[in-house]
Amino acid sequence: MRLDVVTIFPEYLEPLNVSLVGKARARGVLDVQVHDLRRWTYDRHSTVDDTPYGGGPGMVMKPDPWGACVDEALADGYEAGAHGPVMVVPTPSGRPFTQELAVELSARPWLLFAPARYEGIDRRVMDEYATRMPVYEVSIGDYVLAGGEAAVLVITEAVARLLPGVLGNAESHQDDSFAPGAMADLLEGPVYTKPPEWRGRGIPDVLLSGHHGKIARWRRDEAFRRTTAHRPDLIERSDPAAFDKKDREMLSILGWRPGPDGRFWRDPGAVEQ
Ligand code: ADE
User: Fold this and answer.
1) Could you give the dihedral angle defined by the CA atoms of residues 43, 48, 50 and 54, in that order, rounded to the nearest 10 degrees?
2) Is the CB of 186 within 6 Å of ligand 1?
3) Catalytic machinery residues
């Protein structure tokens, strides 16, 4: 997969040399090219921003440097044999970044990231490239960062670990929280490793039992517990057909009740029975 990142802070992308993404680069699974947007400015101050038309606070990124830099990054990529680019523009006003979108992006051969600073990039840049390729405006959460670079790191890591040959164990993303299908959209419960006792704290007996059926049941119960505490909306949205008898017993213990449409609901003040 080819990744291009256009930024005014190339050093912000240094983490792409480390850990999983760094190894994927070293192995040739990822070809990452970071471009310093200011190289495509031609005034004494290397200006990349200007005041917004219509007034208002903040500054807007000028279209000229973006257009020149993105054109060159695209030309370079095509020359290197890449094809099928997708432009990814991190912005708090984008569509939510989800595991589903990570899976979709991981199937693309080429992602070109356009992280903005200031109030954003002149709209005409996205409109221009949308005539040539899919342009995804993506938000990594309901908060406002100072710029899109951190979002590029987040999206890249989520996508890179899905590429064939990047994770050591081919199955290790199959039961991630949010992996489509796996735990029917439950959060993963707690995990433990050696030593068996740490600061007076032991391991749940069931995990030492060697009884695979009981361990799977316990993990699922813990997933229900955690999802109830942190993301009750995931259970409210779930298709109740995904829940077996044991699931329903656990849901009942956690205060969930089937509603008239079969979906589960819970009084937020409910306590474990
Ligand atoms: N840039 C600033 N805030 C952001 C967010 N929440 N997601 C993606 N890009 C952003």
Assistant:
1) 140
2) no
3) 92, 119, 161, 176
Give the DSSP H or E segment for 91.
strand 85-96
Return the amino acid letter for 228.
Answer: T
- What does the pLDDT look like over 185-226, one tens digit per residue? 899 999 999 999 999 999 999 999 999 999 999 999 999 999
pLDDT digits (tens, 9 = 90+) for 53-66: 999 999 999 999 99
Domains, in order of start, for the chain? 2-160 (3.40.1280.10), 183-266 (1.10.1270.20)
Residue 139 in contact with ligand 1 by CB distance below 6 A:
yes
User: Does residue 143's CB lie within 6 angstroms of at least one atom of ligand 1?
Assistant: yes
Amino acid 47 reads T
Sign of CA dihedral 29, 130, 93, 239: negative
